[in-house]
Amino acid sequence: MTRSSQIPDASCVKRLKLLADPTRLALVRLLTRGPQHVKDLNADLRVDQNLLSHHLKVLREGGLCVAERDGKAVTYRLVEGVYDINKGGSIDLGCCSLAFPNDLNAND
Asked: What phi and psi, each to the nearest 5 degrees, are found at residue 98?
């Protein structure tokens, strides 16, 4: 294997950087439960609303989640194909996958 073939492509590095932030990683983990309103995400994370909005925007722009209007509220969900509980419950980043312990996805 040559050195150049060991270097991940730019899109892989970008997606990994998205999840390098603890708040964004926590958001993605929470969204593995399914679509969630911003207020529910904030109740779990307890971060400043501006900071939460910033991180959600970064995840949207990075192609990991989408926002949908639900009346006055906004619901976020992971992009189709990023997470599939039937395929081992891991986040598919295209270049690699990331799995979380099952404790969060258990029926609460």
From this structure: -130, 125
User: CB-based contacts of 97: which residues, under 8 Å, 6+ apart?
Assistant: 88, 90, 91
pLDDT of residue 5: 56
Given 3.40.1190.20, 3.40.50.2000, 1.10.10.10, 3.40.50.11030, which CATH number is that of 8-103?
Answer: 1.10.10.10
pLDDT in tens, 89-104: 888 888 888 887 765 5
DSSP string, 40-76: HHHHHH---HHHHHHHHHHHHHTTSEEEEEETTEEEE
Structure tokens at 54: 């910033």
- Which ranges of the chain have pLDDT less than 70? 1-8, 87, 102-108
